[in-house]
Amino acid sequence: MPTLTWLGKQEAIKQAATVPYRLLEHDPALSHGEKDTANMLIQGDNLEALKALLPYYAGQVKCIYIDPPYNTRNAFEHYDDNLEHSAWLSLMYPRLELLRELLAEDGSIWISIDDDECHYLKAICDEVFGRRNFVASVVWQKRTSPDNRLRLGDAHDTILTYCKDAQKNKSQFNQLPVSSSRSKDFKNLDNDPRGPWASTDFTGMTGHATDEQYFTITTPGGKKYSPPPGRCWALAELTFQRLLEENRVWFGKSGNARPRLKRFLSELGGINAWTWWTNKEVGHNQEAKKEIIAVFGPESPFDTPKPERLIQRIITLATQPGDLVLDSFLGSGTTAAVAHKMGRRYIGIELGEHAVTHCVPRLQKVIEGEQGGISGEVNWNGGGGFRFYRLGEPVFDETGRIHPQVRFRTLASHIWFAETGTPLPEKADSPLLGIHGESACYLLFNGILGDKSVNGGNVLTRPLLAQLPPHEGPRIIYGEACRLSQKSLKDLNITFRQIPYDVKAR
């Protein structure tokens, strides 16, 4: 597969691996609502924040939406959107790598971008996610009218869409609900007891047609129809006869029109989406700015917010209630606000101070029942909560040792992820972290065995080994030191890893 090359690419490829794992420090003062919520708002560099999330959320995020800087050579108040082209690519590449690790096997990522970097972004996304996992380039009509300043002005943004495994999952996107405007297209012209219906074309393409799709249809009025030139009937003759008996064929009010199939509103679970999203369907820039002004007032609104209806469309297609949504370029907080109103769990990451000045108050208002955006449509009345975090110290200090602020649960999550490549499945309250395959993984750290000394019980001895939860198969034990001989470890089917030297720091 052809790949894109730019100055600094090799450093960008290595960057995700070299970023240190950092602690996530909870700030109760900026958190709001239910205290046991899983929703997270993180302030900090999104590359470091994504790395910090890996031990807990790798492979668990069902939908990622990001709206990164477009690199349009314009100055924006809340972020630098004037990066040199190669620097922009180097900014995006390692973040895309970490986002892929966080994405669930049945998950999808949606990336808003405009023409300045769209085609270059497509090239590096093909490289990171795999060309075969590309799903579509959604075209969002972001304007309501042409820009009078330009002879040829842009009217759309592109939303690049990839699945973690498109061969398995791209057909599993949800259908969209039937809108009230769409339902008006359904009538009941023949008083059918099944209710309103709309007629659809009964002809099809000839590319894969069979002989059974070429036949003559006689209308109730006696008129005969064969398939139009270059077309066939959409179904075989026997199937057509069954539909005719079930009163699912419409020949027009006169009974002599070309046959069409009746599609009942009562049987329509939803409608399929396509890649052309009009501003009437999902909103536009002006609508988004009005939503932001309604939340924050007229002073210093964000220049390029996205309308809540646009994010609602993505979350509707890609998730079910309770699924996890991630936005690592959170901006004004739209993705988190919409996910909250739609009953999804979410993680939002934002670098600047407006994580506090904009995202926090917006989500607070959502929890208190704010009625802007999609609130009326989804019957939102408030509730829920979020927890606010900042990036803390690295798990490992500059010498490679465990940072003194690290506690058992943090180190346990990191070790389990380093050992298995998966998030820790259970709450870390035992030296037995879990069983992966046939091996049990243990951690001796910070008095987890109930020692009076905070740092006690970190040395593997025979008496301490007898206190550990049993496991019949292989055991991997992390600790500061081991008093058992190599022969004893082999006889006991134990692999000992010494902290901090055998703990992967990256």
Describe it.
This protein is α/β, with parallel strands linked by helices and about 500 residues long. It has 3 domains: about 10-175 and about 270-395, Vaccinia Virus protein VP39 (Rossmann fold, 3-Layer(aba) Sandwich), CATH 3.40.50.150; about 180-265, no CATH class; about 410-500, no CATH class. Helix content is about 30%, strand content about 20%. The protein is built from 15 helices and 24 strands. It has helices spanning about 10-20, 45-55, 85-100, 120-130, 165-170, 180-185, 235-245, 280, 285-295, 310-320, 335-340, 355-365, 410-420, 460-465, 485-490; strands at about 20-25, 30-35, 40-45, 60-65, 105-115, 135-140, 155-165, 195-200, 205, 215-220, 225, 230-235, 250, 260-265, 275, 325, 345-350, 385-395, 430-435, 440-445, 460, 475-480, 480, 495-500. Helix 11 (about 335-340) links the parallel strand 16 (about 325) and strand 17. The radius of gyration is 29 Å and the shape is globular.
